[in-house]
Design brief:
Radius of gyration: 24 Å
Bound molecules: thymidine-5'-triphosphate, magnesium ion
Largest sheet: 5 strands, mixed
Number of helices: 15
Shape: globular
């Protein structure tokens, strides 16, 4: 019998993710303290001479918080969730940029796709982080995953221009702790033998699963570091933190974690959206808009069919030239996955919106997903529809960005 390979689990987390994506389009800000947060009204202004004028933190008035910031801004003591006015006191000259989730989602997808081409076993943990099972990646067993991790960092940079930090460890718990040890642009190998020296001195809070409340309670007993928790009597932990959490605390502090990489999750929604390069008007650009809308519905149908789902509810999302957002949806009598049925349903939503302003973005979203097999009796797919699902990605229209996003936790934040 072949021996099972040693588990090599990596955790990858992008460095200053939203801020780094912004620096790709505003490279002149590299090296500066840049804070992401606040509303759209702080869009950089293009001057006549082609240079840009950025909002600085000093003029900020309001209750907004820092979403994230560059490492240069962190040097002033600024961090995520800090009030922008407090941040302004620490670094008045820092540049303030608004958040642009669509852009971050695009880069999130790009870096994950780049990783998957090298190591297909990944667990999505949110917009900027993933676990990766390197156990069976060729060569990884020879050097504890060092070369594979280096290759992943290079592939992410190649695909996105962004840096990330990776740790490789025997399990998810240690990998997650490890990826923070050498940020930014880190590559950390953490073995069981390193637990006492590298993990035990860290604050208990660094364990993913010890939240602020548990950390406070531990501190109340004088347990501050992971090592303190590891040294505590396991029976005492059970008595004070409950059987299940107490036992987990003991195991976690000793770096034990058997959880597998979860590579699949059922999607809650599948959607397609397009941001136009110039804003379009429902009447003046009717033909272009109608063709794009139909194309989006066809692509959504292709996505649904490829993934094997039919949708009970179809919705649209629109963003106007003043950045106002509108969404509408409709729940159907039977789930659908055919392009024409999706176009009809989405079209009925569009009729319920005042379209007097120009549009920046249009999106179509399928929710209430059911496995297509269960929906098949409601609407048998035509051969043409299935053909569309198999065809490669259609060529892009020159002024269109097509962003598919496929989310297990989409909350319909339209
Ligand atoms: P993080 O990975 O926690 O932070 P980061 O990528 O900005 O920086 P680091 O180099 O330390 O990893 O979060 C990823 C993104 O999630 C971050 O860029 C912005 C967003 N975010 C919030 O919206 N609110 C928050 O409180 C935090 C912590 C992050
Ligand atoms: Mg990050
Ligand atoms: Mg993260």
């Amino acid at each position: 019998m072949p021996i099972a390979p040693r588990r090599l689990i990596a955790h990858l987390d992008m460095d200053a993710f939203y801020a780094s994506v912004e620096l790709l389009r505003y490279p002149e800000l590299r090296g500066q303290a840049v804070v992401i947060g606040g509303g759209r009204e702080r869009q950089p202004m293009l001057r006549h001479d082609g240079t840009r004028r950025y909002a600085s933190l000093r003029h900020y008035v309001g209750r907004g918080v820092v979403t994230t910031c560059t490492y240069e801004a962190r040097a002033f003591g600024i961090h995520s969730a800090m009030g922008l006015m407090k941040a302004a006191r620490l670094a008045p000259d820092a540049v303030l940029l608004p958040v642009d989730f669509d852009e971050y989602r695009l880069y999130s997808r790009r870096f994950k796709d780049a990783v998957k081409r090298i190591a297909p076993q990944i667990e999505d943990r949110g917009i900027d982080e993933i676990y990766i099972d390197l156990s069976e990646v060729p060569g990884a067993q020879n050097d504890a995953g060092a070369a594979a991790a280096r290759a992943l960092k290079d592939a992410v940079f190649e695909a996105t221009g962004l840096r990330c930090s990776i740790a490789v460890a025997p399990n998810k718990l240690l990998a997650k702790i490890g990826s923070e040890l050498d940020k930014p642009d880190g590559l950390t190998l953490l073995a069981e033998a390193d637990i006492t020296t590298r993990v035990w001195p860290l604050a208990a809070r660094k364990v993913n699963g010890i939240g602020p409340k548990a950390a406070e309670k531990l501190a109340g007993f004088g347990l501050h570091t992971i090592g303190d928790v590891a040294a505590a009597d396991p029976h005492w932990l059970l008595a004070n933190f409950g059987r299940s959490y107490g036992a987990w605390l003991h195991a976690a502090a000793h770096g034990r974690d058997e959880r597998a990489i979860v590579t699949h999750s059922e999607p809650k929604s599948i959607s397609r959206e397009t941001t136009f390069e110039r804003d379009l008007h429902a009447v003046h650009d009717r033909h272009a808009l109608s063709a794009l809308f139909t194309q989006l519905c066809e692509r959504l149908a292709g996505d649904l069919q490829r993934k094997g789902y039919a949708a009970q509810t179809l919705g649209i999302k629109l963003r106007f030239d003043d950045f106002k957002r509108v969404s509408r949806d409709v729940t159907l009598a039977a789930p659908v996955d055919a392009p024409q049925a999706i176009r009809t349903a989405a079209g009925s939503c569009l009729k319920r919106v005042d379209l007097s302003r120009r549009l920046r973005l249009i999106g179509v979203r399928a929710t209430g997903l059911v496995p297509a097999a269960r929906a098949a009796s409601a609407e048998p797919p035509t051969p043409g529809d299935r053909g569309a699902a198999k065809s490669p990605s259609p060529t892009r229209h020159k002024w269109q960005v097509d962003l598919p996003f496929f989310s297990a936790s989409d909350d319909g934040a339209v």
